[in-house]
Specification:
The complex is a heterotetramer, with 2 copies of chain A and 2 copies of chain B. Chain A is α/β, with parallel strands linked by helices. Chain A folds into 3 domains: 6-224, Pyruvate-ferredoxin oxidoreductase, PFOR, domain III (Pyruvate-ferredoxin Oxidoreductase, domain 3); 237-422, Rossmann fold (3-Layer(aba) Sandwich), CATH 3.40.50.970; 513-614, Rossmann fold, CATH 3.40.50. Chain A is globular, with a radius of gyration of 27 Å. In chain B, α6 links the parallel β5 (169-174) and β6. The longest helix of chain B has 15 residues, at 25-39. Classes of the chains: A alpha/beta, B alpha/beta. At the A-B interface, α1, β9, α9, α11 and α12 of A face β2, α2, α4, α10 and α11 of B. β2 (65-68) of chain C pairs parallel with β17 of chain D, so a sheet runs across the interface. The structure holds thiamine diphosphate (2 copies), iron/sulfur cluster (SF4) (2 copies) and magnesium ion (2 copies). One magnesium ion binds at residues 53, 95-97, 124, 126-128, 135 of chain B.
């Protein structure tokens, strides 16, 4: 399937597939992304769909999109602007035109540009006419009609025929980027194994799209994006939510403890529960509780009897769990609370991403209630930090909050599969019947961690609860000095975790320099891409992206002191920066904030840093 | 069962009991300790989980594993305990406020799911620990600190609420009826699934005599009926009163020997009957027309949630190729980069 | 009543409806708008309060006052609305998850207290908005995204849970039975106290056909019984089937004309009967042995909480010497410093 | 009833009545405090009773105490140490001896010092023997036996007779401080009006105690504490919880709106609900909800329809309410949330005081969720700040958190009754049917406050909810820039409240100086007493005690900049000081923290400040 047309080499490309919710764009995008990953590219994706289950057809509100960024260098974000936009209808064009690069290619399904659809999209006139000023390359394809034509003898009903038009679009794009069709063909055979007519039809349309692209004038060249230099290993695609679920299970297996997850469904966290529920084969127990409070309470009950209890949720659910979290704080039971952040306050923007639950995670409980907080920074490393959260919970006998966000959770990326053997060991302080002179609140001198006697252990019967407890023995105590001591123990215990986490790394100049960009959690891809582009331009900029939030890594102050200026980027109105002002008050932090339910763009980050560089 | 032969004293912890002198809770803990001694499983296999309230101080006084949790959540935490380790025998303790006010949702859901718990509901019809506010079981018109002019709320009947939530086991006792409570707890413990035991408890300080009409020794035998599965529903000082179903399908009191009523006319208690219809009528009985039902009212076999969860794990494990995390990590679409 | 004669269209807001095509919610909103037009009180006196879920988008589509609140709390917020301003007519909208999962506690307490609300429970036996997880009303064994190997939970029957919570008004309808729903809402609106209306609703996307056995047009008349107060409990294609109470006090289907059964043998529906016994049996009916009960099953007069609250205020005001804050500030022990 | 014994003049005295829970010490203390207030003294009191309803008799855990501090100068705290201790049994002595001044007088009921009671109290030997080193004046009185003797002909049963022994003790103390008996006599007549035998018996015992003191040798002198110079006006005793309830009602009356309170009982907040429930005569609607969430939700419902919705709680309850608070934040409905702080975390120390819910109040919600916070600083000014919280809620259309604490809530103080006419006006932005072009989220240009169209208002039908809303119209909006705009509006709206609150005052040197002591809320009495004592000693120390926490008064920075050193005292591990580090980062704050479930002592405050002065 070679072509005589010109070939252009590129380092990276962004494609956005967009159409009506029913047009199958998520599947199309995933296929392209998987094929590219298999081909050896670095890939990052971003699915973007309406909040409604079935948003009204043909309208901008009903547009579903899937963006794929792939290339031969490190790809860490789905990209700000796209090189290729596939728009299956006028609404898709309207919703996405602003995100196309001036030199980009737009492929439209011209068959859907009738008066009705143009109106529904909110255009007063056909946007494809009178657009002489466009710098885009416009490819008008009769995607619907050609699909119909291709399948006219298939014997399928019209609805099924039209539904496969997404494969035609995919075929066009495969040709453009010189991709093999086999992965998708295999996929179609598997997916429609039971209805071979449909599998055949889809494959036929896919090839028809490919051939169409090969033949028409409008596409004068195609592109070559060579494989990237990727670390050796076995890879798979993984979403943040799946990676989170797997990280939890990996930690449980490593600690040799049963995993129990009590949760209540909530967007965008539900998939973690769903993924865990699939894993009865690994002995995972999940319970869809009656509400968030029951979710965490069942998990606490499970932790109490020697499981690793887990509960998963998003902002409003975390608010509901806050009273119960404190029970785990005062009883010093291990527990992992996963909060997949979304736009707030209140119900807010449930399908959008944000980093605005940090305050709540740090401070949202009555009394003096210190707790470790860990944040994932890529879809893939949700695995690592779910593992770390669990490790910390078990080794330090404390609830831990893992923060991810809607962007990481739904986003997928190729991910190198770790080997279980290489993961750090996890040793919870469980005691057995032999334990001499067991006292439930006797602490390890170095870590201040108490020991865990699990119900069922002969001879270690004891009572715990939410009232303040006597140092050592753990019985109820109203002694004033004891309360202060216990509050200090609980605080210091969390601070001492800094001995059990790695030092903070710097991307850029380890020995210091002009500007230190500071980020945390899910903004990593955008911040590091921006910083690396600036560095390529010769700018003196480095990045510290935090995953361990409380406690902060021990070298934080040391690192900060090596830079002249400190600017904190985050997707909220300034929560981490305020936290740093308390924890490391020696520095004068600048801040850049965005609260739009969207990730940063590389462009805005670079602009802000360039401005700062000019201020010199 | 275990080698050792326990006595009730084995279940007493070293903590001084802090309930008011005369509080019904003293008798209830004695019943529980006697029941545990009779059941005689290893002490370390008991987990006693409570919420918050006077009654919820219970675990501190028991020399077993115990967890005094937060207000209203005892049922949810006990659910987690049992599902995570079904070998443990779980006793859940709640006051009427803990179970039916703030904890109402967990109460109905535990019953619906049929988690294998013995749920003891200490119903003193008042908030004791916070010093005397009405509860969802307080009678209509009750004057308390938060209802100085009287309430205007119809109370829950906890056992009826439980039936509405598809309960499989419900029973009722009285704090001072130590043997009855003990016997019920032994039955509840045998029953797999949620066993709800409502215990009419006297709060001497804030609601003294709330159950007096029923518990009053002198008239007790006329006002209480102690149900036993397979036995006719008889009561009264001379055990000559009985219950029948009248033509409108309602329970009515008759006297044996009067109007030709014979012992064989009296309803025989069938706690195991799947259809909760008669059980519902029994929970609906109110003084003075009808006696108050005590004993095990309903006890129907059904799979417990925690059992089924474990069964599902066994089944899925058998048929799945994924045996460990490494299998999972490599399952499905993967590719090599060399 | 008011001067203006409303039409259903007057109750449509300017917001585009975002439910999936074919969703049962479309029919339900039509029923509500028709009922409101018939009831014909001033438009500004309606307050429509919902929780979160597909169904809870409802208020946005209504041209009345509306409040889309938080998940599970619709009943509690509606309670505040009605108690604070009893002139408003309050419609509360919840899905099965909103009402019986996270909102279970507020659901049972609103019913117990008898707040004057019309509570519409959209029962599609699934979580729609979060894309298809089982709910407390999903059938045993159901496979969904969170129960890939099937659930092991016995579902609630919402109307039975309501009776367990001392409900005074319960009714049931089907999304597509627009007139029946409308008529029930008109009755519910007249009833003072909490009127619970369970509406069997189809979710075409995540639980299509969940109620098919009952709603299936062809067999509808054999599988549904539409109850009317004072009318015999008849159903069937030829209206010749009826319900009687058998000797064991259970409901049974008979056919008129067969085995000598006459019309007068058929039970007459008494929705106003204080004793919920028969109503309970009616909510317990399940296919195929018995038809599913529709219409107003129970409707018993009782004081509404909000009314009694206002009555108490009037009474206390009459007898108290304190008429304003200044009176209160100076009441009791005070002293002068000069 | 004069006496020939010597009279000693004093400025202030602290008395502590202590005995078994059943000994009637709360009543005794209250009587003494009321009598002193009526006499014209300044008074401050502190009740202190066991957490258990009926703690075991005779043990230290069962001791109930009531401390009264009164004098002729400003009295702002119940005092650290007492001049007179009344100990009705050995346990009371054991529990309180450490709090008696070396020169203090201890009056014991010697009849209760039998072997059994001495043991129960945890003494190995009679503490009244072998105490030559005691510097205290010890008065051994046969209180029980003399009471029995006094009433031997009363015809009362033994139990009732013994129960009145607290009046004997009160009589002794009345004589010591030359107080009239009439207030207590009147009280007894009223209280036991229906059982005159009991009233008579109590009066007789009271007088017997008085006469006993007059006669015995052991009491060689008595004391004169002249009336204080107190602001003119009508006074009454009031607890913090009662003052809070009344402040809420006063604000509702002033705003001419109905008051609705939905709450769930919880120590130490329950009395606010109880007090409001009494006020059906003022049209107050209260609802004891099924839980905290229902409590706040009913209040939000009430606010939605034009009431002022209120909910009252303590720490764990505030945690439960946090999700619903956010609904009020995003819908911009007025709402008052009262949090009576207690010892945390979790159930913690429910009957003890603490200031550790500040973090939760400021930050304990998902998303960007700004909210005004106001804190009362005396039992009496709970009235003022409940009023202020309500005024701010109504005039700025926002939920407001009022923080009080267990110390203020249960403490009582003489309180000058304000006149309703003098209270500031309250004008909520309610609109009527005439309103032209009403848009629910159109904002006032200066304050950013939206207008309130209450259901029932003809023609203004509209919908509100927890999803992000379109600027102006209020319909659902997913537009990224709109979300950011609304987040900023909500933040700025709260900041602009600083235009509607008074400036921060300074106690001490308004023009600045060496040390500024900074406090907030309920520590006022102790901090101001300590600072005023230090100032009397000539030290350069001033105090800024904050009541408006968010936003801070506008002149905060200005005030702070006038002092060299800043030290923040609070009853937690440093929550307000961290907040100041964010809000006013220009200063280098020192901190002094205590988390013992107890107020500060004057002594420890002075010690810390003296140390700081030495550091100079
Ligand atoms: C979240 C929370 N809300 C409220 C309370 C206060 N509280 C403690 S126990 C209780 C009710 C006690 O009544 P009940 O459950 O009937 O138990 P009892 O004391 O009568 O045995 C309340 C309201 C609390 N501890 N936590
Ligand atoms: C506190 C909280 N928890 C969870 C959610 C997520 N959530 C939204 S709607 C819903 C359930 C929807 O099911 P149902 O109430 O039956 O309504 P339906 O969509 O089926 O009409 C859930 C779990 C939420 N919005 N808020
Ligand atoms: S207050 Fe009542 S319930 Fe609580 S311990 Fe005392 S008597 Fe028992
Ligand atoms: S998902 Fe189901 S319930 Fe929700 S709108 Fe669509 S059809 Fe209706
Ligand atoms: Mg109780
Ligand atoms: Mg549903």
């Amino acid at each position: 399937m070679s072509s005589q047309k010109e070939i252009i080499k590129m380092d990276e490309v962004v494609i956005r597939f967009s159409g009506d919710s029913g047009d199958g764009m998520q599947l199309t995008g995933t296929q392209f992304s998987d094929t590219s990953a298999l081909f050896g590219n670095e890939v990052s994706t971003f699915p973007d769909y309406p909040a409604e289950i079935r948003a009204p057809q043909g309208t901008v509100g009903g547009v579903s999109g899937f963006q794929v960024h792939f290339g031969r260098k490190e790809i860490l974000t789905p990209g700000d602007y796209c090189d290729v936009l596939v728009a299956m209808n006028p609404a898709a064009l309207k919703a996405n035109l602003q995100w196309v690069k001036p030199t980009g290619t737009i492929i439209v399904n011209i068959d859907s540009f009738d008066e009705k659809n143009i109106k529904k999209a909110g255009y007063t006139a056909d946007p494809l006419e009178d657009n002489e000023n466009w710098s885009y390359k416009l490819v008008k394809a009769n995607i619907t009609n050609m699909t119909k034509e291709t399948l006219k003898d298939s014997g399928l009903d019209q609805k099924s025929i039209v539904r496969s038009k997404n494969m035609f679009a995919l075929g066009i794009v495969y040709w453009m980027f010189d991709r093999p069709l086999d992965h998708t063909i295999e996929f179609l055979d598997k997916k429609f194994g039971k209805i071979p007519e449909i599998a055949e039809a889809n494959k036929k349309v896919l090839k028809a799209g490919f051939d169409f692209a090969h033949n028409i004038q409008a596409l004068a060249y195609h592109y070559e994006i060579n494989p990237a230099h990727i670390e050796k290993g076995t890879y798979r695609n993984i979403t943040g939510n799946k990676a989170t679920a797997w990280g939890l299970m990996a930690a449980a297996e490593k600690a040799n403890l049963p995993l129990f997850c009590g949760s209540y469904p909530i967007t965008p966290a539900t998939e973690i529960l769903q993924e865990l529920a699939l894993r009865r084969d690994l002995g995972v127990k999940t319970m869809q509780a009656e509400d968030e409070i029951a979710g965490i309470c069942t998990a606490i009950g499970a932790s109490y009897v020697g499981n690793i209890g887990v509960t998963t949720t998003s902002g409003p659910g975390l608010a509901l769990k806050s009273e119960a979290i404190n029970l785990a704080v005062i009883t010093e039971l291990p527990l992992v609370i996963v909060d997949v952040q979304r736009g707030g306050p209140s119900t807010g923007l449930p399908t959008k991403t944000e980093q605005s639950d940090l305050n709540q995670a740090l401070f949202g409980r009555n009394g003096e209630s210190p707790m470790p907080i860990v944040a994932a920074s890529t879809s893939g490393n949700c695995f690592k930090f779910a593992y770390e959260a669990t490790r910390i919970a078990l080794e330090h006998m404390t609830p831990v909050i893992l923060l991810t966000d809607g962007y990481l959770a739904n986003g997928a990326q190729p991910w190198r599969i770790p080997s279980m053997e290489d993961l750090p060991s996890i040793t919870p302080p469980i005691v057995s019947s032999d334990e001499k002179d067991y006292l439930p609140y006797k602490r390890d001198a170095k870590t201040l961690v108490r020991k865990w006697a699990v119900p069922g252990t002969k001879g270690l019967e004891h009572r715990i609860g939410g009232l303040e407890k006597l140092d050592g023995k753990g019985s109820i105590s109203y002694i004033p000095e004891n309360h202060e001591l216990m509050c200090e123990y609980r605080r210091d215990k969390i601070q001492l975790i800094s001995n059990n986490i790695p030092e903070q790394e710097i991307f850029g100049d380890k020995d210091g320099g002009e500007i230190l960009v500071i980020g945390w959690g899910g903004t990593y891809g955008h911040l590091s891409t921006a910083v690396s582009e600036l560095r390529e331009e010769g700018k003196n900029v480095s990045l510290a992206q935090f995953n361990y939030i409380n406690p902060l890594p021990k070298n934080t102050k040391d690192i900060f002191s090596r830079f002249k200026k400190h600017i904190v980027f985050e997707l909220n109105l300034g929560q981490f920066v305020n936290y740093l002002r308390n924890e490391q008050p020696e520095f004068n932090y600048l801040q850049y904030n965005k609260v739009q339910g969207l990730p940063f763009t590389i462009e805005e980050i670079k602009n802000r840093i360039n401005d700062l560089l000019k201020e010199k | 069962m275990c080698d050792k032969k326990y006595t009730p004293a084995d279940f007493k912890s070293d903590q001084e009991i802090r309930w008011c002198p005369g509080c019904g809770d003293h008798a209830i803990i004695a019943s529980v300790q006697r029941a545990m001694a009779e059941i005689n499983i290893p002490k370390e296999d008991w987990a006693v989980i409570s919420g918050i309230g006077c009654s919820s101080r219970f675990p501190y006084y028991m020399n077993t594993y115990g967890f005094h949790t937060i207000h209203g959540r005892a049922a949810a935490i006990a659910t987690g305990v049992k599902c995570a380790n079904s070998k443990l025998k779980v006793i859940q303790i709640s006051g009427d406020g803990d179970a039916t006010a703030i904890g109402g949702n967990h109460f109905i859901h535990a019953l619906r799911r049929n988690i294998d718990l013995t749920m003891l509901l200490f119903n003193n019809k008042i908030y004791g620990l916070t010093k005397g506010q009405y509860s969802p079981t307080s009678e209509y018109g009750k004057k308390t600190k938060t209802s100085p002019y009287g309430t205007f709320e119809k109370p829950f009947k906890p056992l009826q609420l439980a039936l509405g939530a598809q309960a499989r086991f419900i029973a009722r006792s009285i704090d001072t009826s130590i043997n009855l409570t003990k016997d019920i707890i032994i039955e509840a413990n045998k029953h797999k699934g949620t066993s709800l035991v409502e215990i009419l408890q006297n709060c001497v300080i804030y609601n003294d005599g709330a159950h007096k009409y029923v518990t009053d020794r002198e008239n007790a035998r006329d006002r209480q009926i102690i149900l036993k599965h397979g036995k006719p529903m008889l009561f009264g000082k001379n055990n000559d009163k009985g219950l029948i179903l009248n033509s409108k399908g309602k329970l009515t009191v008759v006297e044996i020997g009067k109007h030709g009523v014979k012992l064989s006319d009296i309803l025989v208690h069938d706690a195991h009957c799947l259809d909760p219809h008669i059980h519902w009528l029994l929970t609906n009985m109110e003084a003075p027309a009808l006696p108050v039902a005590l004993g095990v009212i309903r006890s129907v076999e059904d799979n417990a949630y925690n059992e089924e969860l474990e069964k599902q794990i066994v089944n899925v494990k058998q048929s799945s190729k994924i045996k460990c995390m490494n299998d999972l990590l490599h399952q499905g679409d993967t590719w090599e980069v060399k």
